[in-house]
Amino acid sequence: MNRKTLPVLTAFALVGTATVLAGAPATASHNGTTPTAFALSASGYSTRVVGGDVPAGSDRSAYQVIGCTNLAGLHKSNPEVDVNLGEFRISGARTDVATTKKGGTVSSWGRNRIAQVVLADTGAGRVVLEGVSSKSRAWHNGTGFHASTRTSVVAITLDPLVGPDVPLVLPTPGNPLRIPGVAVISVGDRDTTERANGAQANADALRIKFIPTGTVAYLAHSRAEIMSGLARGVYSGSSYATRANALEGTVVSGPTPLLIMPCVGTEFERADIARLTLGNVAIARGLNASQRGVVRDGNPTAFERGKVARTNFLNGTLVVRGVVGKANVTLDGNQASKNTKGTTIAEVRFNGRLINLGSRDSITLGNNVATIEPRVVKRTKYGIEVTALRVTLLQRGVVVNLGHAKVGIRPSGL
User: Fold this and answer.
1) What SS3 state is found at 389?
2) CA–CA separation, 365 and 125 (whole Å)
3) Band of the pLDDT at 347, cuts 50, 70, 90?
4) What pLDDT score does 27 carry?
5) N or C of the chain: less Cβ packing under 10 Å?
């Protein structure tokens, strides 16, 4: 028989918007922005899937973010009409993130809404969740910093092959909805933090654990943050020692150890790992990431640095020592001075032979065994990014970045 349609769901997902087509791009608005004395960020997504057997790239559907800004008046949205994640399907998903200023109140907002979630068919029919949403807000007013979250689920029903829908009891904190042999549906986590120098709000509307596979899905996530301590510039950046990806994009080993620059900068921070195995292609030792973002002589300045003491590729065929990637930036008024001073590669040996890197952009080693690219640099108006050494293992189809650093400082406009 034909499944029942729910016209109200479209209205729920697209309230306040124009018609959204499948695959429509995310949108953003930057007109009418106002500089503030606060660092603002917000993000949201409809689904995050952990474990189990789900399609590649299924993580963080309808994802949208506003990162490291002090501008009020920003708005970004990302709609996805239909996403099939194997064990379940979502329809009418939308994330909105925004920064606002109204009177003396400055706010950061994150919101996610899902019109419908359909769990895979069971012998008794489908389980349908309607109107899943979360909203997070962090703000500052005359009484300080504040944060709040709100989540909701309109209904959960069993949609049988024959007969009317059967309403199911909504989960409450500590009392999940258990559907034997199918899933356990729990209320998601919500937390807020209010401090003297900032506030943060995070919320997941629901958590679903699928019993047959152990897959866990988090639905309707929202996040918002506001911080004080903004200098004359807004900081951004990150650093890591190693990252490895297959040529088709599959992650072999994520950025490790990873440091991310706070919007307001930071005193010296570092992270260390003694040893890391990069899939089955390399072993790295002495991994380090470090960063600093401060004000000197009235000018914001920052660096990010990623270091690897030694990396052994392909059982010693290729050995790299003393890799450091360092990115530096100083903001003077609206002008950014940036460089990669401190980026070094001590030694590269292939089959025991020392390789002279010189000033070459790329070097092929052996009979298409690998290519190496020293000092891969990318510049933007207010920042710079460097990978000290990129190694592509051609016969294994893996790209390894060693010593990565990225840093930027944008004028605050204040």
Assistant:
1) strand
2) 58
3) very high
4) 52
5) N
Buried (b) or exposed (e) across 12-21, using 16+ Cβ within 10 A? bbbeeeeebe
Say whether both 213 and 302 belong to one domain: no
Residue 167: CB atoms within 10 Å: 10
User: Could you tell me if 270 and 148 lie in one domain?
Assistant: no
Calculate the CA 286 to chain-centre distance: 26
Cis, bond preceding 257 (omega within 30 deg of 0)? yes
Q: How many domains does the chain have?
A: 2
One domain for residues 214 and 241: no
Residue of 368, 360, 367 whose CA lies nearest to 392 = 368
Tokens of 406: 């990225």
Residue 219 and residue 239 share a domain? no
| Domain final residue pick, 161, 192, 227 | 227
Please give the pLDDT value at position 7: 33
In this prediction the pTM is 0.79
Residue 186 belongs to domain spanning: 7-227
Q: How far apart are CA 349 and CA 311, in angstroms?
A: 11
